[in-house]
Design a protein that fits this description.
The structure holds 2 protein chains of 2 kinds.
Chain A: E1 2-5, H1 6-20, E2 24-28, H2 44-48, E3 53-55, H3 60-72, E4 76-81, H4 84-87, H5 91-98, H6 101-104, E5 114-119, H7 134-137, E6 144-146, H8 151-163, E7 168-173, E8 180-183, E9 196-199, E10 204-208, H9 211-227, E11 231-235, E12 238-240, H10 244-254, E13 257-264, H11 269-281, E14 290-294, H12 303-309, H13 313-323
Parallel strand pairs in A: 2-3, 2-4, 4-5, 5-7, 6-7, 10-11, 10-13, 13-14
Antiparallel strand pairs in A: 1-8, 6-12, 9-11
Helix pairs in contact in A: 1-8, 3-5, 9-13, 10-11
Chain B: H1 3-28, H2 43-52, E1 59-62, H3 67-73, H4 77-84, E2 108-111, H5 118-132, E3 138-143, H6 150-161, E4 166-172, E5 175-176, E6 179-180, H7 181-184, E7 200-205, H8 209-224, E8 230-235, H9 253-260, H10 264-274, H11 280-304
Parallel strand pairs in B: 1-2, 1-3, 3-4, 4-8, 7-8
Antiparallel strand pairs in B: 5-6
Helix pairs in contact in B: 1-2, 1-10, 1-11, 2-3, 2-8, 4-11
Classes of the chains: A alpha/beta, B alpha/beta.
The structure holds thiamine diphosphate.
Chain lengths: 327, 319
């Protein structure tokens, strides 16, 4: 086991998959000569050359569509979109072409491409650079959405995504690229469906994904130490399709749910999970499920307002305490 | 421009340069957060064009490299700095930050962080001018790399079809973050792309303000007289990295030094000295007075201004 950073995990996956299969390419703005904004493609340009590591113009709609087209005839492109905010410009191609082509061609054509993009509020990047868009992507038929919460997942999911015959959107987080964690020395593939019980508990389930898993873990610790509440943490690393069975299993054990997301409500991962809980295990509930989410505002630049707009572990703790009548 | 005009513009350009350099320092001291894109090296572009246009009267819109454009339109440097500090007194009330400087009172319609986003907005403003029958024009400043966005083409086409009073100013500094124009763009001369839409266009040196002014005057007069859109390309260079985290590994130090030989402030300064309208001592005094003003007025205002109130988090979301 080696300790690696999240970006190093992504880089290793790129490297291994490109070495294995000459039809795997990567493309995006500044990913080649400049080494990649978040370094996920560092040194690959030198190793694989400009035909396979493509610095694209600032043409998100264009190059995303181009990558999708290449995937129609067997190329396996990993398309990096620097920030989810810019993925808005590529959504037409992602949604109208990649996600629908398999269905509308009656299974003749598939778009086995990987989209990677960084979402989230980093530090004071303002309204146009802080989007959380997972709720939009997860509602599109034909698209897989995964959200790695640690380096091992980042590495293993990218490898699985490259080999998947579906279009896969890997939703990363700007604040996680330097996070460290263990990655197996041998090749490892992380599933693109399912969920993971990251911490076992008895009284309440905290659902998180990507960065919010870490708020949940921290909250669980505080709840246990300071309030004697045992919280289970479930990492919903796959947002589409969602792991209904996994959600049900945990609720059947704890009978309570808090969902933590950085995205805004209304309309979010949280609303979807609450709907699933209602559909699958309503009569097992001891309390109404609640969600912790961002305020519905374009992300403010000011630091204090920014902190007030996005949730953190304390908000998760507070939600649980309220649920237990302790706050 | 008369010699007096030129002296005023020189003072303004020194202010613009020093303002940006001071931002750099404040960023390192963590007083300014987020992304910060600075303008040194490109001063003759904004100044030359706006001298030919009417600051505060014509509408201006631009990308994230926007502080100087706002100041040139008439925005008080104090409120721009306060914005960068995220203060309630900032021109966008601390909600926008460096990439979203707005000052509608001076017809500065904003800085936008999505590359290419302002193109259609500029055309829309021009459409509004056309309908209202004013003599303003709409001016859109953007970088060269932005021209590779689809909306560039869509906008140029519509601007010509409807003969809109919009001036596109391409500040061609030859890089989009770390990617050289040579590696991203099929047609290196950006003004040539406008011909695909039958739009009048020209290219000129962006370092010599006299040249910029002369070309801009032609362009502005053309647009203002109702002849339709115009595309002006200014050849320039940014001295600093794209943003603060950029170590500039993608370009050579020789190339940077070569461009610095054609510094827009030095060119104007030397011309004024040669014309006997300025002495070196006077210039040094301008620099000193500028620094004092920035320190004693601008920075002090930003430092001492109040933070926004958390209770106002949702203010400005909806009308
Ligand atoms: C739609 C979109 N894609 C990518 C980016 C990231 N990005 C920010 S600035 C930039 C380069 C733009 O270069 P140019 O238009 O030439 O302007 P300059 O920075 O040189 O002034 C890129 C790729 C963005 N902000 N928006």
């Amino acid at each position: 086991m080696a300790e690696m950073m999240y970006w190093e995990g992504l880089r290793r996956a790129h490297d291994e998959e490109m070495t294995r299969d000459p039809l795997v390419i990567c493309m995006g703005e500044d990913i080649g000569v400049a080494g990649g904004t978040y370094k996920a493609t560092k040194d690959l340009y030198e190793k694989f050359g400009e035909k396979r590591v493509m610095d694209t113009p600032i043409s998100e709609g264009g190059y995303t569509g181009l990558g999708i087209g290449a995937s129609f005839i067997g190329i396996r492109p990993i398309i990096e979109i620097m920030s989810v905010n810019f993925a808005w410009l590529a959504m037409d191609q992602m949604f109208n072409s990649a996600a629908k082509v398999r269905y509308m061609s009656g299974g003749q054509l598939t778009a086995p491409c990987v989209f990677r993009s960084a979402g989230g509020a980093a530090h004071q990047l303002g309204a146009q650079h802080s989007a959380r868009m997972e709720k939009v992507f997860m509602g599109v038929a034909g698209l897989r959405v995964v959200t790695p919460s640690n380096p091992k997942q980042a590495y293993g999911m990218l490898k699985s995504a490259v080999r998947s015959d579906d279009p896969v959107f890997i939703y990363e987080h700007e604040l996680m690229y330097n996070m460290k964690g263990e990655i197996p020395d041998e090749e490892y593939f992380h599933p693109l469906e399912g969920s993971e019980v990251t911490r076992s508990g008895a009284d309440v389930t905290l659902f998180g994904y990507n960065i919010s898993v870490h708020w949940c873990l921290k909250a669980a610790e505080i709840l246990e130490k300071q309030h004697g509440i045992s919280a289970e943490v479930v990492d919903l690393y796959a947002l589409a399709p969602l792991d209904r069975a996994g959600i049900k299993k945990s609720i059947s054990k704890t009978h309570r749910a808090v969902i933590a997301e950085e995205d805004e409500a209304p309309v979010g991962v949280g609303s979807e999970i609450i709907a699933i809980i209602n559909e699958e295990c309503f009569f097992e509930l001891d309390a109404a499920p609640v969600r912790v989410h961002s305020a519905l505002v374009p992300q403010p630049y000011n630091h204090t307002l920014e902190k007030a707009a996005i949730p953190d572990h304390q908000d998760v703790v507070n939600a649980v305490l309220k649920m237990f009548g302790k706050a | 421009m008369t010699l007096d005009d030129k002296k005023r513009v020189l003072r303004e350009m020194v202010l613009h340069r020093r303002f940006e350099e001071r931002c750099y320092q404040a960023y390192i001291e963590r007083k300014i957060g987020g992304f910060l894109h600075l303008y040194p090296g490109q001063e003759a572009c904004c100044n030359g064009v706006m001298e030919a246009a009417r600051p505060g009267h014509d509408y201006v819109i631009t990308g994230y490299r926007d502080h100087v454009h706002a100041i040139k339109c008439g925005t008080d440097p104090k409120v721009v700095m306060a914005e960068l500090y995220g203060k309630e007194t900032g021109c966008s009330k601390g909600r926008g930050g460096s990439m979203h400087v707005f000052d509608v009172a001076h017809r500065f319609m904003g800085g936008y962080a999505l590359v290419g986003g302002p193109f259609p907005l500029a055309a829309g403003i021009a459409k509004g001018i056309q309908m209202k029958g004013g003599d303003e024009i709409s001016i859109c400043f953007l970088g060269d790399a932005a021209n590779n966005q689809g909306v560039f083409h869509e906008t140029l086409n519509m601007a010509k079809v409807w003969n809109l009073p919009v001036l596109f100013v391409c500040e061609n500094n030859q890089y989009g973050i770390g990617t050289s124009i040579q590696r991203s763009t099929a047609v290196l001369d950006q003004y040539k792309r406008a011909c695909a839409y039958n739009i009048e266009a020209a290219q000129c040196d962006g370092q010599d303000i006299d040249t910029v002014y002369e070309y801009a005057k032609t362009a502005v007069d053309y647009v203002r007289s109702g002849k339709g859109p115009y595309f002006l390309e200014l050849m320039t260079y940014r001295y600093r990295g794209h943003s603060m985290s950029d170590s500039r590994g993608y370009r050579s130090r020789e190339e940077e030094e070569e461009w610095k030989l054609r510094d827009p402030i030095n060119i104007l300064r030397d011309k004024l000295i040669a014309a006997g309208a300025l002495s070196m001592d006077e210039f040094t005094a301008i620099e000193k007075a500028t620094d004092d003003y920035i320190e004693n007025d601008v920075m002090k205002f930003a430092e001492e201004s109040p933070e926004p109130n958390v209770a106002d988090l949702e203010k400005y979301v909806l009308a």
